[in-house]
Write a structure and sequence with these properties.
- The complex is a heterodimer of chains A (about 450) and B (about 250).
- Chain A has ten helices and 20 strands.
- By secondary structure, chain A is of the alpha/beta class.
- Chain A has one domain.
- In chain A, the strands form two sheets. A ten-stranded mixed β-sheet of chain A has the order 2-1-5-8-10-12-14-16-18-20. In chain A, strands 3, 4, 6, 7, 9, 11, 13, 15, 17 and 19 form a ten-stranded mixed β-sheet that branches.
- Chain A is globular.
- Chain A starts with a helix and ends with a helix.
- With about 250 residues, chain B is α/β, with parallel strands linked by helices.
- Chain B has a single domain, classed as 3-Layer(aba) Sandwich (Rossmann fold), CATH 3.40.50.300.
- In chain B, the strands form three sheets. A six-stranded mixed β-sheet of chain B has the order 6-9-10-3-11-12, with helices on both faces.
- Chain B is globular and about 60 Å long.
- The chains are: A alpha/beta (about 450), B alpha/beta (about 250).
- At the A-B interface, helix 8 and helix 9 of A face helix 2, strand 7 and helix 3 of B.
């Protein structure tokens, strides 16, 4: 069974690689060629993860892809306006807006409101021509193709991505929102978006990602984000994953932190068919702070798999992870939080917590903390809980006159609040809270 | 106000209440006493509407309605309030927020307009004084980190806010020292009126020095085996429960 899917995917991969290289003739960003061919090489060697692959044990996305998509499908072009796109979300915050349509960055649809002293947006094309060598020094140097087959897949075909730069010492006053829109109105849509964020020394910026698939057909988004901070820089990435029951997403967000930098990743997952998030942070400095927050509130048959990894390479840094899940109906949650503390990383403080509530007999969650600690003077902790809604608490509220549904919703909202509180933009927090209230009011 | 007729109830196939008969009129305070395992807390739970208990016989009339037909929240909206023996902690839900929701759902049920933020705060401040509870406690997560006394005072605060017709205090004195007991009792007494009634479930006579009952009933083996005035409570304190048990066993023999 397994080899059948592997064969299908391997064949499609070859077909895609050939189609891709012929499509690039002339328009290629040659600079990326070595990263691409290296990635393709890795992918051909390791192949797509099989059911026995430990890292994908609970999430057999290779099978989903083989069954539902043809990797060699050509991306199509779609006509949309920024107004229409913003209208899909209605988040009331002032921001800079970037747009990816079907995995390709579209600068004409994007709207930059910050001054270019604070924010510089370039397409990969532009950077390759104005600043040769820069792309090659960054793309794929952090999110390594050798680490994960899906990172390799995206890298093998990366071409039209966006580079977001915040110059050193600047504080970006408006966040950068990126919309990833996929058009599945006529048939399946496969996209490979690629982003690169560079926050300069002492600079500060926040990024938000929204995703939406249009149409009834299935979509597959294989995305890679690389976020590189400078010394003393600060950043956050909010990912709001509230797509349709026909959307599949797998990809990596890689963050690199040098001395005294602070970064927070907040991932909110509300809907989708299969979502696999690989979040990896290299804490390669002292005095750093790395925070990973997640909330997954799933129903139907949604399958969400959050794999996180924080690598404490140097001493005296801090990481904190809190993921909370509420699973209903037949949905499934998977959590695997890895913490590595290298031998030199003395005085590391690393904390991890994953709490889950199952609302139905058929919802499931698999949670696994994984700590590998080689230093001997550290403070690390981890904890996982899986439980049901506290019926005693529900009764207490009902005994005060609160209806059963309201009581359950109140308790679940309270459970989610710990993560929601981490959202610093009121408009975004309200947006997420409203979606959650709608969901819990059923 | 409350007419309990031959009430029988079980939990997990075990019969706990074996035919309770009790009548409570407005303005009255009834104490329910009895040895451990007699069914005191079960009676309170069944009246409040806990679903783990199965009512196997009898009827309960509350102000003309069939109480057993109503859900827990409907009973609360009709005017029943249970002060829990072990009030639970609910992280993330503050007393203030949940009180506002509860109060407004009850008012809605009674055809009253919802209280706005200002009116609600005013009412809160008024009732806080009654049980000497601090506002900082109310804006924390419900009962989280509260001492035993603070939890019980919070129960009475909620009672003051919701103004029930029938308050059932389930071993409200358990775990309290004399000072906390006094504050709780003062709160309960201040809320007493000729229109409402109170059922005080207690193991010890001590609370009844402060909340003076009009009637004292002794529950044993799921039945009320003796009723009297507050003097009965004093007799129990002196003699214990053995003589009651003996009497009751003779009767059933």
């Amino acid at each position: 069974m397994d080899s059948k899917f592997k064969n299908i995917l391997d064949q499609e991969l070859v077909a895609k690689a050939e189609a891709f290289s012929s499509s690039l003739n002339g328009s290629a960003i040659d600079e990326l060629q070595s990263a691409r061919s290296e990635a393709l090489g890795y992918l051909k060697t390791t192949g797509f993860p099989a059911k026995k692959t430990e890292a994908y044990k609970y999430t057999n996305i290779s099978k989903d892809i083989a069954q539902n998509f043809d990797l060699s499908l050509k991306p199509k072009s779609t006509e949309l306006t920024l107004k229409e796109i913003k209208g899909l979300f209605n988040v009331g915050i002032e921001a800079n807006h970037l747009v990816f349509i079907n995995g390709i960055y579209n600068s004409s649809l994007s709207e930059i409101n910050s001054d270019d002293s604070e924010l510089v947006i370039s397409t990969f094309d532009e950077i390759a021509s104005t600043n040769p060598g820069k792309l090659d020094a960054l793309v794929g140097k952090y999110a390594k193709a050798s680490k994960d087959p899906f990172t390799a897949l995206n890298t093998a075909f990366t071409n039209n991505g966006v580079l977001v730069e915040i110059p050193k010492n600047r504080e970006l006053s408006l966040p950068v929102i990126t919309y990833f829109i996929a058009d599945a109105t006529e048939d399946e849509c496969i996209s490979f978006p690629r982003t690169l964020y560079v926050i300069g020394q002492n600079a500060k910026a926040d990024f938000i990602h929204f995703t939406k698939s249009l149409g009834e057909h299935k979509t597959l988004k294989n995305q890679v984000d690389e976020i590189i901070l400078g010394e003393n820089a600060q950043g956050s990435l909010y990912k709001i994953q509230d797509d349709c029951e026909t959307s599949y997403a797998v990809g990596e967000t890689k963050v690199y932190q040098p001395n005294n930098s602070r970064f927070s990743a907040i991932t909110i997952t509300l809907n989708g068919a299969v979502i696999r998030n690989n979040l990896n942070i290299d804490v390669d400095g002292e005095g750093c702070e790395a925070n990973m927050y997640g909330l997954y509130l799933t129903k139907g048959k949604t399958h969400v798999d959050n794999q996180t990894e924080v690598d404490h390479i140097k001493p005296n840094s801090y990481s904190n992870e809190l993921y909370k899940g509420i699973m209903d109906e037949n949905s499934k949650g998977v959590f695997n939080g890895k913490i590595y503390v290298r031998r030199e990383a003395q005085k590391t403080n690393a904390f991890q917590s994953n709490n889950n509530v199952l609302l139905s007999d058929t919802a499931t969650v698999n949670t696994k903390p994984q700590l590998e600690i080689w230093a001997d003077d550290v403070k690390c902790s981890h904890g996982c809980t899986i439980g049901q809604l506290d019926e005693e608490a529900v009764f207490y509220l009902r005994s005060r006159g609160i209806g059963e549904d309201s009581a359950r919703a109140m308790i679940l909202r309270a459970f989610a609040r710990e993560v929601l509180e981490k959202i610093e933009y009121e408009g975004l927090k309200e947006y997420v809270e409203n979606e959650i209230t709608k969901r819990l009011s059923l | 106000m409350l007419k309990i007729k031959d009430l029988k109830a079980s939990i997990e196939e075990k019969e706990i209440l074996r035919g309770i008969n009790l009548e409570v009129k407005p303005g009255e305070v009834h104490a329910i006493m009895g040895p451990n395992g007699s069914g005191k807390s079960t009676l309170a739970s069944v009246l409040a509407g806990r679903e783990e208990y199965e009512v196997t016989g009898g009827a309960v009339d509350f102000m003309g309605s069939d109480l057993l037909e109503l859900s827990a929240e409907e009973r609360a909206r009709e005017g029943i309030f249970l002060a829990f023996q072990y009030p639970i902690e609910i992280p993330g839900v503050t007393t203030t927020n949940f009180m506002k929701t509860a109060l407004n759902q009850i008012r809605e049920h009674r055809g009253l307009e919802k209280l706005d933020a200002v009116a609600f705060l005013k009412k809160m401040k008024e009732k806080m004084k009654l049980v000497e509870i601090d506002q900082s406690l109310l804006s924390r997560s419900l009962n989280e980190g509260f001492s035993g006394g603070e939890k019980k005072r919070n129960e009475i605060f909620q009672m003051a806010m919701l103004e029930p017709k029938l308050a059932i205090l389930d071993e409200t004195d358990s775990g309290l020292d004399i000072d906390a007991l006094r504050i709780v009792a003062n709160g309960v007494n201040a809320l007493k009126s000729s229109d409402n009634a109170t059922i005080v479930v207690t193991h010890y006579q001590r609370l009844l020095d402060y909340i003076v009952p009009d009637f004292v009933h002794v529950l044993y083996n799921g039945r009320i085996v003796k009723s009297g005035t507050k003097d009965l409570a004093l007799e129990l304190e002196e003699k214990g429960y053995d003589w009651i048990k003996a009497e009751a066993n003779l009767e059933t023999a």
